Inverse folding.
């Protein structure tokens, strides 16, 4: 009898806070909440559209660390600082998920830093 061992959890990337940008657990990749911070470490200037573009670029980069793309995303959770930004957010989001978009939950919430949006994602890509 051959004993099967579950695949170990794999973490990808680093952060200045105690989290991993992406974690693979079996066939699923979990992306930590991404915020609109550019490569310079600063919150991008502009409104919800600019911040959504940056957040989704950060989600894409975290997915890439684990060998995934936006096409592999099966679920997102979105926190908006102001529900009135939903229309503008949704327009940007739709461009990044033009076909077969993932399941999504979107809520209004006070965020941990002075930003307009945060997005986490779950991707499915068999090993």
């Amino acid at each position: 009898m051959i004993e099967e061992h579950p695949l170990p959890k794999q973490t990808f990337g680093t952060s200045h806070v105690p989290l991993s940008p992406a974690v693979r657990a079996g066939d699923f990749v979990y992306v930590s909440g991404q915020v609109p911070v550019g490569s310079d470490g600063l919150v991008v200037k502009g409104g919800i559209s600019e911040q959504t573009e940056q957040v989704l670029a950060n989600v894409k980069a975290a997915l890439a660390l684990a060998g995934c793309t936006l096409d592999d995303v099966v679920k997102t959770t979105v926190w908006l600082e102001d529900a009135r930004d939903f229309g503008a957010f949704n327009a940007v989001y739709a461009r990044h998920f033009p076909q077969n978009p993932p399941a999504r939950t979107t809520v209004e919430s006070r965020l941990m830093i002075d930003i307009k949006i945060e997005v986490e994602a779950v991707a499915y890509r068999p090993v």
User: Anything to note?
Assistant: The chain has two helices and six strands. Residues 24 and 58 are 17 Å apart (CA to CA). The mean pLDDT is 94.
